[in-house]
């Protein structure tokens, strides 16, 4: 499963199950679905069937319920959705079921209900692990409740747990964000998603922004901060499976994003930032000795080269007339590189080893 390709069949239940509006949230715009929309059994089956027809063979497929607090939905609605999903698991067409929910909507009785349907992953809308940031964002739960929810889920080893983090919320700071990362790592989640806070039209955060009570992160600030977060999770061996909101049609529509660090290729910007820092480090370490070549996984080429190849050209120029070559090797793990100096020595480096800014 670890090296197997993963594919998700996404079914959106926008904002359903949430007790209130957080200051940053408009799930209808984020997901492109109306808050009032409720999936019918026919829609669920049709969506699953359509996706299954397009998927490659030998992939790990999950049905994913996103956009709301799943365990806050009416139990009868949860039951309908899970029963249909489990049909496909039992048939072997799908291997897993995942959903997102609030940390305070996880209890042992809820978990006993879920385990009977073969749920394989639960993502907790954590946002921050600072109680003041959570209060200012009107989340309605505490950091302690996140820790408690993770502990409860961990009693069911067949279910993975993920944390969704939103750096840049009201009252946030670099120090508070990195403390959230430290606490998150202590909880040992199976994966993390990082979504820098955006000002979405129609939210309370827009009003706070318009009245100068809130200043969002700039794109450069968000890239730098998320790079630090990702580096720490990489060091801890915790995958960050998403950086930045998915660029839906509605999110890209004129007027949806009022302010904030949105970019359709946000993850790649973060990767470029980290690779630029790593190349600068390599210049300091090896340029005087002569660099013959760098080897990377081919999937990392664009991120290493930087925008219009600028980072790679700067590295070559700093290495002098030798002009090191860039080679590709699928055996090298992602986000690592091998460098050979003119004396034939090979040096291995990784993004995770970079120092803090």
TrEMBL record:
Cofactor requirement: [4Fe-4S] cluster
The keyword Transcription regulation belongs to this UniProt entry's keyword annotation: no
Classification via CDD domains: Radical_SAM
Span of domain Radical SAM core: 4-232
Superkingdom of the organism of origin: Bacteria
Keywords: 4Fe-4S, Iron, Iron-sulfur, Metal-binding, S-adenosyl-L-methionine
InterPro entries: ELP3, Elp3/MiaA/NifB-like_rSAM, Radical_SAM_C, rSAM, rSAM_horseshoe, rSAM_sf
Cited SMART domains: Elp3
PANTHER family: ELONGATOR COMPLEX PROTEIN 3, HISTONE ACETYLTRANSFERASE-RELATED
Name by which UniProt lists this protein: Histone acetyltransferase (RNA polymerase elongator complex component)
């Amino acid at each position: 499963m670890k090296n197997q390709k993963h594919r998700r069949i996404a079914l959106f239940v926008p904002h359903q199950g949430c007790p209130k509006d957080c200051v940053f949230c408009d799930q209808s715009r984020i997901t492109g679905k109306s808050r009032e929309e409720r999936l019918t059994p026919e829609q669920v089956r049709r969506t699953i069937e359509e996706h299954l027809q397009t998927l490659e063979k030998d992939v790990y497929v999950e049905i994913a319920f996103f956009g709301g607090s799943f365990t806050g939905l009416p139990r009868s609605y949860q039951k309908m959705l899970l029963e249909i999903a489990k049909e496909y698991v039992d048939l072997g067409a799908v291997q897993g079921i995942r959903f997102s929910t609030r940390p305070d909507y996880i209890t042992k009785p809820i978990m006993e209900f879920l385990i009977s349907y073969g749920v394989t992953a639960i993502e907790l809308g954590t946002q921050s692990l600072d109680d003041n940031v959570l209060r200012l964002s009107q989340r309605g739960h505490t950091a302690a409740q996140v820790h408690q929810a993770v502990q409860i889920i961990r009693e069911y080893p067949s279910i993975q747990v993920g944390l969704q983090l939103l750096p840049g919320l009201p009252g946030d700071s670099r120090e508070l964000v990195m403390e959230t990362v430290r606490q998150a790592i202590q909880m040992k989640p199976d994966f993390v998603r990082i979504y820098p806070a955006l000002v979405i039209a129609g939210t309370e955060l827009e009003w706070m922004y318009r009245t100068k009570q809130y200043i969002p992160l700039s794109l450069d600030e968000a890239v730098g901060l998320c790079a630090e977060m990702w580096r720490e999770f990489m060091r801890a061996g915790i995958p960050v499976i998403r950086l930045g909101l998915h660029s839906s049609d509605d999110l890209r529509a004129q007027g949806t994003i009022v302010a904030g660090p949105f970019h359709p290729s946000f993850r790649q910007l973060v990767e470029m930032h980290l690779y630029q820092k790593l190349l600068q480090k390599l210049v300091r370490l090896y340029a005087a000795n002569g660099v013959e070549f760098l080897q990377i996984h081919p999937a990392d080429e664009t991120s290493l080269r930087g925008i219009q190849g600028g980072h790679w050209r700067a590295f070559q120029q700093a290495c002098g007339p030798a002009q090191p070559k860039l080679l590709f090797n699928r055996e090298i793990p992602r986000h690592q590189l091998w460098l050979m100096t003119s004396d034939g020595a090979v040096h291995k480096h990784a993004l995770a080893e970079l120092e803090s800014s």
